[in-house]
Amino acid sequence: MTDPAAAHTRMVDQLIDAGNLRTAPWIHAFRTVPRHPFLPRFYWPTPTGKWAAVDASDSEWIDRVYTVTSVVTQLDNDPAAWGHARHAPRPGTPTSSSSDPGLMATMLEALDVHDGQRVLEIGAGTGYNAALLAERLGDDLVTSVEVDPVLADQARAAVAAVGRAPTIVTGDGRDGVPDRARYDRIIATVSAPTVPPAWIRQTRTGGRILLNLYAELGGGALALLDVDGDRAHGHFLADYGDFMPTRDEQPDRTTQERFDAALHAPAGDRGHVDVTSRTLGDLDFAMLAALLVPDVGWITFTPDGAPEQLWLVGADGSWALIDANGDTEQRGTRRIADELTAAHRTWRRLGQPTRDRLGLTVDTSGNHALWLDHPHQPIHSTTRSPR
Where does the record place the region Disordered (predicted)? Predict the structure, then answer.
């Protein structure tokens, strides 16, 4: 088995070389806190699309732990699934993971914490990120909340094993942790479709919130917001970052299940649009599309002897397919191909902006306004009832 210390050093060196780690305090934290105590067992993808169970008894354990990638730690919200997968790889939907260390480092650097500041992490998961924050700031200044009580207990044990003791509480992360507010920084390592008002209320004026806005279409939108009273505003990062959604936002049916249903549905209306199956390959457009076309998953499919198809499947059962030539077929109450086309036209009208030119303003009433460069150049706004 690979030496854990050598593998740990190699991973941190990779993060520095890639530009994910830039400042001395975070480099020190990553060098001090190893990853393997937080991943005693996990799932690894197989070529068949199933998940194999891996633990410390496997020769590849350390090499995989210190790969710069996310590692799945739970399937289907079921703690017992790992035991079944230990006998043979099994299918399942990931519901918790240890985040990609490169993304973790990028976000921690962007958070711009300073000595003495209080931080709330949403989504403790394995506890690795909380331990890094505690190493950087001190245990008393770090709070982390985890909705799953089993994962919360495991995270507490793991951070203790590396000599750290941040406060890890069990609860719904959307509510924050009011008993320990206010915070100078909130960082979410789960994704949420909107910014919960509680996060704004629990952050001091001048503080920051960093989160991935959840969209089934993807997009990897990382919003870095400065808080001012009951409002927060800021730009999206240039970096791509996706996290698993909060438990209540996990779709009732997976994209694959919706796609399978659409394949057997009656034929839809045929037409032609000015986007193709490859349009979402532009990550800058993909982020805007994800924000403008909600509740839609996607999958690519290549029928025998036919061009590649992009299938868009809505939570309400609506669906659309778009091929490499822009030919389309769609069915349902939503005309999803038309929605994607409208989003693409908006992106072109705006000059095909990069993702970091887009910004967001939110408030505690649930208003979310998307803008280009400055808040006075609005693109789209929506209101969701505040929790």
Answer: 81-101
